[in-house]
Write a structure and sequence with these properties.
alpha+beta; NADH Oxidase; globular; FMN; oxidoreductase; Nitroreductase-like; Nitroreductase
Amino acid sequence: MQLTQAITQRRSINYFDPERKIDEKTVTDILNLAALAPSSMNLQPWKVITVLSDEKKAVLRSVSYGQPKVTEASAVFILLADKTYAEKNINTVLESMIELGYMDKESAAEKAKTVPNSQGAPDSFLREKNAVLNTALFGMNLMYACAVYGIETHPMGGFEPEKLRKEFDIADNLVPVMLVAAGYLKPGTKLLPRVKRLSSADFNHIL
């Protein structure tokens, strides 16, 4: 599927076929493709919990205002923003940059000292904002990656964060950003036309 097709054909599906499943290899392939999303300083702050079992989807539905698509979808991705991403990932990123010729070891050592602070302190608003923003970019990439595999999606903000945190044992440094339900359209479902989108003339201001 071409990118233009993925963009123009993507819809937020409410009715999934509960009989069709997504295998773990496909999940892995989709997540690896989604992980090519851009992030500040390539620090990749996202964490994912992939809910495949019926038991855990039922738990997730209970903290998502009872929305049926949570249990009907083949998989539901819980996207989390890790506020400690800079400290955790900086060395891995810098080692790769040295290996690929972006910088030498001395420059990398200096970056290791300065980059985490540039992202804000781990408990600051700036750090959380950066983590959530970059995880949202991952989320959009995830939906396009699913489209490549013929899998429909629905991003969801309708959940209770503290109950989600408790039921799935989510650490304090992780911020729940969104759920992405993924699966296949329920047979016999007819989608209405896409709701009108504003044109660039409505929202763009050229200087």
